[in-house]
């Protein structure tokens, strides 16, 4: 009966594709594909909602800590501003680079579910250490309310706690998002469309967590106590872990199959070894796993780009069979399948896209730094004398993203599907490019608002001698925050989808880590650009664009520079995107054929 059901599923659509390279597993018995036949009882939204819930709590905890970290270091740990800034940069750097290691370990050894669970427990331990450092008398920073220097033990526990959170984020972020996407079956037309919406609603859940983190948690820190905030995020994380585990029976799992990098090294070595061999006249002569063999892989179609690598799939000596050796018995260092070759091409093709999206990351970096600094100098009163906490202004970007996602997923995609015939509405790279256009608009808007703010500074402070916040309302910053948030809704979500879909199936957690590294490297690049601009603008006795404070700086010029950089970069991105070849998966039919519809278009 199970065999008949699977045969029926495989014949239901000529456009369906092979089972993903990593085996699907479930608590129930498996079919001959290594996959549970109980499709209706597992996966899809019934599983993804549990996963989005824990992402919400993780982002709430992370941004609740990260947004106000520099204030804690200066007010409680009593670091000077320069030392505190370095501490934040070091921690942020480790946090953004750790997903590369965590994603690799999840794909190669632990599996995504196990990595998420392990990381969540480490996260909870880190939050517990922060809570203990505020509640346990011997671990508190001071014996009295305030002191000039905190206890050394408090400092140790605090940094141990935040770096445990950093390590946990490295395993949590790439594994959880890819595990959520794994719940949607690309073989199933309905679930395939649902997966396209998944990345939109995943980011909505993320932004809701961010929104509560930079408003509710930051407010508790500022107006109640650091201890109360730590207790809150610790309890929320503990509850979310319970929720995540309770969804275990609904999840679909993939078993890791070892390092995804080793097969790529096989291809590279084999291609170099056979570099002097001529290309075959017909790509069909290149070696591929016979369709008659039972495989758990999605076979990829041959492409004509990076043809040098095709030499890894050239069959050297047909006399091997006469000697009793089959192609399958040859060393992988000498002969690779077309699918393995194409997987390496996929990874190499991501590098130009990764590089040309760094400029967008430069704009995103300003939202959490200079945008907030602008807001801290402005009138933040809204009603009855209530002041918006400076860190909470960042929530405007999250609101912009949520609005853009809702409009895009519920309104634009259905309309575009009918007009373009593309089930995504727009292909992935088009969506990314639109967001990059919004980043240019955001920087131009920010430059104009900053020019006006400097005019108010000159009138009220430099000439009028006013002390304190400007009369100019913080709501002047709404447009630039909202526009960059809308850009995030296109580019960042597009990048998530791109680095999940356009990498080999067995390294999708590492693919999400590559997306996260765009933001991490962009933060480092932003710091480097500021250093370079500061040096160049102060040459010849000129006044630097970055003065002793924001009121003595020319941030408007820096924003115009970023806008110009992004215009040039967008042109380069369009040039590359127009020539990009998406992943092409063979159809699952009796006769092997390559799909006309490429994954990602």
Automatic annotation (TrEMBL):
Residues 1-20 are annotated as: Disordered. The keyword Signal does not apply. It holds the Pfam family PTR2. The keyword Nucleotide-binding does not apply. GO terms for molecular function: dipeptide transmembrane transporter activity; tripeptide transmembrane transporter activity. It is a multi-pass membrane protein. Keywords: Membrane, Transmembrane, Transmembrane helix. It is found in: Membrane. GO terms for cellular component: membrane. The chain crosses the membrane at residues 88-106, 113-133, 198-220, 226-245, 353-372, 392-416, 428-449, 474-500, 512-533, 558-577. Residues 1-16 have a biased composition (Polar residues). Belongs to the major facilitator superfamily. Proton-dependent oligopeptide transporter (POT/PTR) (TC 2.A.17) family. PANTHER family: OLIGOPEPTIDE TRANSPORTER-RELATED. This is NRT1/ PTR FAMILY 5.6. It comes from Thalictrum thalictroides (Rue-anemone). The lineage of its organism: Eukaryota, Viridiplantae, Streptophyta, Embryophyta, Tracheophyta.
